[in-house]
Write a structure and sequence with these properties.
Helix content: 55-70%
Strand order of the largest sheet: 1-2
Number of domains: 2
Largest sheet: 2 strands, antiparallel
Order of helices and strands: HEEEEH
Structural class: mainly alpha
Distance between the termini: 133 Å
Shape: rod-shaped
Strand content: 5-15%
Radius of gyration: 52 Å
Length: about 170
């Protein structure tokens, strides 16, 4: 009986040792399971964060597209304004030329010139002198054979070739 008791004690020690190993294994597996759960939770959080980043990315793409459209619209406006500014500058230059031309040109009296101001031909009985009603200069028939309505006249009046060309350019620019 003593031998059986010894055997039972040895068996019991072996089973307790096995139980201790299994308990340690179980604790180790529980620990690994907890780590796996934590990893899963962290990965789930990361997936959710990435979804948020993806949505944020989409929102940023939309904002970039909106801003690009706004920039294109503003660039188009700048081009339109630059074009209009160019037109205005041409008009201002034309008006300035006209103003300067009108300021320095005065009515030349018949006795002050015996030659056409453009072609320099000498006036005679056959080649009569004519005043340009725009600049006041004296010209022959050939250099003042144009008629144009001026702001100061109700009907078309004689203008020299230079004024005619200038005024046509000016009126066509308007």
């Amino acid at each position: 009986m003593q031998g059986e008791l010894q055997k039972e004690k040895a068996e019991r020690a072996r089973v307790e040792e096995e139980l201790k190993k299994e308990t340690q294994k179980s604790a180790s597996l529980d620990q690994k399971l907890n780590l796996a759960w934590e990893n899963q939770r962290a990965l789930t959080d990361e997936v959710e964060r990435q979804k948020g980043v993806g949505q944020e990315n989409e929102d940023l793409k939309k904002e970039i597209a909106r801003l690009k459209a706004q920039v294109a619209e503003k660039e188009e406006t700048v081009v339109d304004l630059a074009t209009e500014l160019g037109r205005s500058k041409v008009k201002v230059d034309s008006l300035t030329k006209y103003k300067n031309m009108m300021k320095k040109e005065t009515w030349i009296e018949d006795h002050e010139s015996s030659n056409c101001q453009k072609c320099q031909k000498v006036f005679s009985v056959a080649l009569r002198r004519h005043h340009c009603r725009n600049c006041g200069g004296l010209f022959c028939y050939y250099c003042s054979n144009n008629r144009m309505q001026l702001p100061v006249s109700a009907t078309p009046v004689r203008v020299c070739d230079n004024c005619y060309t200038f005024l046509l350019t000016r009126y066509s620019a308007d």
